[in-house]
Amino acid sequence: MTVTPALDLLRSRRSIRAFLPTAVPDETLHALLRLARQAPSGANLQPGEFIAVRGAVRERLSERLTQAWRDAEPAREDYSYFPQPMPKALRRRQVAAAQALYGAIGVGREDRVGRDAQFGRNFRFFDAPVALIVTIERGLGTGCYMDLGMALHALMQAAQAYGLASCAIGAMASWPDLIRAELDLPASCAIVCGMAIGHADPDAAVNRTVTVREPLESYFRSIG
Question: How far apart are CA 99 and CA 94, in angstroms?
Answer without folding.
Answer: 9
